[in-house]
From TrEMBL:
Keyword list, A-Z: Disulfide bond, Mitochondrion
Protein's recorded name: COX assembly mitochondrial protein
Chief place where the protein resides: mitochondrion
UniProt KW Disulfide bond keyword: yes
Subcellular location(s) of the protein: Mitochondrion
Natural source organism: Rehmannia glutinosa (Chinese foxglove)
Keyword Mitochondrion set for record: yes
Family: Belongs to the CMC family.
Cited Pfam families: Cmc1
InterPro entries, sorted: Cyt_c_biogenesis_Cmc1-like
Length: 86
């Protein structure tokens, strides 16, 4: 099973998606007997690569946000300590 084959959501795999959809149109019965299986495997591989890139980008972004949050906490805790001593 694959996600919805919308090109705007999967720009990396646009060419393979178009080929896969064309194969289904060209072979309405053959698609049930493995006519488009090679394209399906290529599509699955492309989706996995795309997901890995997104996962890596999201992880890097989360690391940046964590660092900003830690800096904020550190700054706030120092400010609180100064207020409590004053």
């Amino acid at each position: 099973m694959h996600p919805p084959l919308t090109i705007h959501r999967h720009p990396m795999c646009a060419e393979i998606i178009e080929q896969f959809q064309k194969c289904h149109v060209d072979h309405p019965l053959g698609k049930f007997f493995g006519e488009c299986t090679d394209l399906k495997l290529k599509l699955d591989k492309c989706f996995r690569q795309e997901k890995a890139l997104k996962r890596k980008a999201n992880f890097e972004e989360s690391q940046k946000l964590k660092e900003q949050l830690r800096a904020f906490w550190k700054e706030n805790s120092e400010t609180r300590e100064e207020r409590s001593f004053a």
